[in-house]
Amino acid sequence: MIQKLYQRLSELISLTFRHPGHLVWILAAYIPFLGLYSVPLTGDQKVYLNTALEMRERGSFLVPYLFGAPSYYKPPLHYWITMGSWKIFGFNLWGSLIPSVIATIATAWFIGAISNILHARHGRRWFSTAGAWFALALGTVTFGTTAQMEIFTCLFYAAAWWAALKFLAGPAQKRRWLWLYGAFAIAGLAAINKSPLYSVLWVAGFFSYVLFEGHWDLLRERRFYLAWLFGIAVGSVWYGSILIVDGQRFLTDYLVRETWNKRSGNRGSWWSLWLALLYYCVPFTLMLLPSMRAIRRGRAWGLVRFLFCWCWAPALFFTIYPYRVKAYFHMLVPAAALIVEWGYYHFSGKATFRWATAVTGFLVFVALEGSALVLQRAWLVPAWIVTLFVLTGATVFLFATRSWMRAFMLACFAGILVFRIAAVSLGQQDIAGLRASVASLPGHTRIGMYDEHQNIWHEFALMSVALARADGTPPIERLDSLDKAVKLLRTGGLLILSDEQDARLGRTLLAKYLGTGDRRELEDKPWPRWKSRIKFPYQKLLRGELGKRSEILGMLQRNFRLKRVAN
């Protein structure tokens, strides 16, 4: 009986390493506690949520808004997706972040499907784990659980390649041109996700692939160019519409400020991009070199040509382009996942791959055990979370040294979940003070955060979705003047000031409030929050020099102020 159960369990686990069974592990690592994930791992998601919130409040679909005026910082597709998710799942953190998780899962599916198509050409089919490797990558963990555009860039890039390969997979006489139209249309959607540049990069890669694979006959086909024009039309609809509606502002704000002016650069170095790619590929970074050796020895030149065509255009452009942002290279992580998948199935028994896996396991072990020690000595999370870090690190190390690759991958997925649990714990501590104050207020009480400088990275939208309640608590308002702040207070609202704002403007605000003739007393409560910019005292914590919890919290926290008229 036990033997049969074990055999059945082994069969079920094996199924999860076939395409698309590996999506089960991605769901298990990414979905839990998503609605509580308020830690801002990246700054840009604040901008995107702020813009989507203003569009939602104004009922604007075509024109993005920020600070009460049209804003063309980025095209609107991501804002549309966010607003649609709020409509379906509610105005909350779950509704804000679930589109990115869905995009991660969909990208993993497309990468697995691409792997099957490529290997089927060589008469080989095996368990496909490329999508799982992609989901394990540190870059995907970052962008796949935040309201960012990078994960959607990967999605459109992978989906367009999948459709193009489906078109090219069959005999020339039986090609279904609908696949090619779909590929160019998906590439066109990438133009209104972040920039038309990404559509151009995909088209350049696809054209080179057509030439390298010897599909010269396509260049003589009228339908080939019609499909290309169809993709251009899909990507141009919004741009053409906005030129008609608000052309002058769009040309100034997007084409000049956000595109042309960036040619002067941002002092980013080309090598920082490539280092970022290695960072984004953790935990399989060290496995890339032996995997590439496996590809060379296996003479998998079809795979090499595909990977080259996926990578050369973005790699070349962003290396040369003077405005360099590390996130640009995340779109190369799917190609790295395909490389490691090949090495896993063809080279995992070799000494170099085993050593790379063992060293990776040791580094992950050190990172997780070190994190556990820091978290324990700083009293940042409960003891059971620290225990999870310790156990997960030990498990990853054990499986890596034994070269039990499937178990190693599952342990890494467990590590992602543990990391997210710790992030949720820290995020809930950060918002606890505000949530407790709002819970004591009547429903529909207005809440405002002061922002006189129109900071595009202000967190009023992120806090709004994190605070969203079933009783209809309205989104947090952005207040750009003290007069608006005083008006909010007098109407019974809750005003939020940072510690710096309170020190600089607290007395002026009180004088303005008293100057209105209102003699009701103002309540002033602290809201302890984690400092966003601080040199974390790792060394002091590891040496045990910081003994008291109050001393540690004094270094890591600052007090926002919550002000309202006393009852």
Commentary on this structure:
- This protein is mainly α.
- The chain has 3 domains: 2-50 and 80-347, no CATH class; 351-431; 432-565.
- The chain is built from 23 helices and 7 strands.
- It has helices at 2-15, 23-30, 44-58, 77-89, 93-120, 130-136, 138-143, 150-169, 177-191, 196-212, 222-259, 270-280, 288-297, 301-320, 333-347, 351-378, 383-402, 405-439, 460-467, 482-490, 499-515, 538-543, 549-556; strands at residues 65-66, 69-70, 447-450, 477-479, 494-497, 522-530, 557-565.
- The strands form 2 sheets. Strands 4-3-5-7-6 form a 5-stranded mixed sheet, with helices on both faces. Strands 1-2 form a two-stranded antiparallel ribbon.
- Helix 20 (482-490) crosses helix 21.
- The radius of gyration is 26 Å and the shape is globular.
- The relative contact order is 0.09.
Mean pLDDT: 89
Q: Quick one: how many beta strands?
A: 7
Oligomer: single chain
Strand content: 5-15%
**Major sheet summary line:** 5 strands, mixed
Radius of gyration: 26 Å
Q: What's the tally of helices? A: 23
Encode the helix/strand succession as letters: HHHEEHHHHHHHHHHHHHHHEHEHEHEHHE
Which residue ranges are poorly predicted, with pLDDT under 50 across at least 5 consecutive positions? Answer: none
Strand order of the largest sheet: 4-3-5-7-6
**Overall structural domain count:** 3
Q: What best-fitting shape do the alpha-carbon axes yield?
A: globular
- The structure class reads mainly alpha
State the helical fraction: 55-70%
- Terminus-to-terminus distance: 69 Å
